[in-house]
Each structure stands twice: as C-alpha cells, then as structure tokens.
Amino acid sequence: MSTVSRLRRYGLWLAGCAAIVLLYVWYTSPITVPDAYKGTAADPSLFYSADQLRESATLNAIRNAIFFFSWPWQWAIYLYLLTGGWSRAWKERIGQSTLPAIVRLPFLRFSRVCGVYLALFAA
Question: Which spans are transmembrane here (predicted)?
C-alpha cells in the first residue's frame, strides 16, 4: 500500500471521526437554563424573543464547532511549518541576527506561534 493511499485513508478516517464529534457537539450544546434560575434575571427567555433564543443556540453550537476545529488546524499548521522548511528558514534568519543568545530562542518560539495564529485567524 502506497504512502499516499495510506494518508488518504487516515485523512478520511479522521474526517469521519471529526464529523461524529461535530454532530455530538452540535446536538448536545447546553441551551437550557437550570430550574433554579428560570424566571430570574439569569433566564434569557425573559429578555430574548423566540427567534433570538434560536439564533443564540445556533451561534453557540457554531462557536463550539470552531473551538473543536481550531486545535487540529493549529497543529496542522505547526506540522506544515516544521516539514515545509519554514521553521529552518526562521531559525537561520534569527541565528544571523544580532540578538543575544538568551533572547533568540524565546523570540523564535514566539514568532512561530504568531505565524500560526496569523494563518488561523487572518485567513
């Protein structure tokens, strides 16, 4: 079995698991208020209309899904940076700088994290 077909099979398996977890997160998002707080100022049904409550539940599920997908996406970008040569290029460029040695490593790590977050949230 070739490496490409093995990676494709693994990717499909991973996507299937992600879809199952996403469905679980979507349908089990807690949108009910505990009985102790119903009718109090903590109950959104007092100041939201039915449409606003439905939109709030939908947006809550979307927020949970985005949180679920952000962690693997972040690690995919890390792996791409490490295997694509970007990490080596950053290391060489920072190594050529005039920064003290004690500052270079934290700066390298910080720049990699900033690169990942820019790739995640600027797109």
Answer: 12-29, 61-81
For the chain, the DSSP string reads: --HHHHHHHHHHHHHHHHHHHHHHHHHT---PPPGGGTTSTT-GGGTS-HHHHHHHHHHHHHHHHHHHHHHHHHHHHHHHHHHSSHHHHHHHHHHTS---HHHHHHHHHHHHHHHHHHHHH--
Q: How far apart are CA 32 and CA 43, in angstroms?
A: 9
User: Measured in whole angstroms, how far is the alpha carbon of residue 26 from the centre of its chain?
Assistant: 16
Q: What is the pLDDT of residue 26?
A: 72
Q: Is the pTM of this model over 0.70?
A: no
